[in-house]
Specification:
about 230 residues; Glycerol-3-phosphate (1)-acyltransferase; seven-stranded mixed beta sheet; globular
């Protein structure tokens, strides 16, 4: 591990726990969004990574939606937080149990606005009930349909399913986002050497109506971004 890698790791852990504590102390969506954006901007600034938003006009100013995005890196949520900073949309991230119970990151994940997904559970009714509660309160849901980070050479891996059901059951339109230009490679280089300014692009597509035939969100997603 290089000195810069060690420095970034220590800073990221420190920042995550500081903001986990701050998030625990607030209850409104507006304050949580402000803190999440602030956290994301500080972490990306440390990495010297700029987020360039393509088709920002496709991001609604308010309302509730199902935001779906491809998944390449551990900082994908921070990319999306910065990209949507000018919108009043507040999304609850779908969080896996491993992150929810993490010793280092658990408090941040639990306090930031998340819905726990336990894939080992035999019953998913609690998961969908939590989503229903979030949407009823006027908030959005943010999800990575690939389920886990794409570490292949393919631009996209198979969607795990479930996103269609979330949209239809809760009657919320889908906001597609696509993180471009191999953000994983950019992050890897930034962690090794943050002295160079780097740019990650994220594109937003037009909304997909929950009323449409969305038997395959994956196909519609690929059409939106010509994948």
């Amino acid at each position: 591990m290089t000195f810069n890698q060690l420095k970034i790791a220590i800073y990221a852990t420190y920042l995550t726990n500081i903001y986990g504590y701050k998030l625990k102390k607030v209850s409104t969506a507006k304050e949580k969004k402000r803190l999440r954006t602030e956290y994301s901007q500080k972490l990306l600034s440390k990495l010297n990574v700029e987020i360039k938003v393509i088709n920002e006009q496709n991001i609604p100013k308010d309302g509730k939606y199902l935001l779906i995005s491809n998944h390449r890196t551990i900082i994908d949520p921070t990319i999306i937080e910065v990209a949507t900073k000018n919108s009043d949309i507040f999304g609850h991230w779908i969080a896996k149990k491993e992150l929810y119970n993490s010793f280092f990151f658990g408090m941040f994940v639990r306090s930031a606005g998340t819905v726990l997904l336990d894939r080992e559970s035999s019953q998913m009714s609690g998961f969908f009930k939590d989503i229903r509660r979030v949407v009823k309160a006027g908030d959005s849901i943010y999800i990575f349909p690939e389920g886990t980070r794409n570490q292949s050479e393919k631009p996209l891996t198979e969607f795990k399913g479930g996103a269609e059901k979330i949209a239809k059951l809760n009657k919320i339109d889908i906001l597609p986002a696509y993180i471009k230009n191999r953000a994983d490679n950019i992050l890897y280089d930034a962690i090794k050497d943050s002295s160079t300014h780097r740019v990650i692009e994220i594109e937003f597509g037009e909304l997909i109506s929950y009323k449409d035939n969305i038997d395959s969100i994956e196909d519609l997603y690929k059409q939106r971004f010509k994948i």
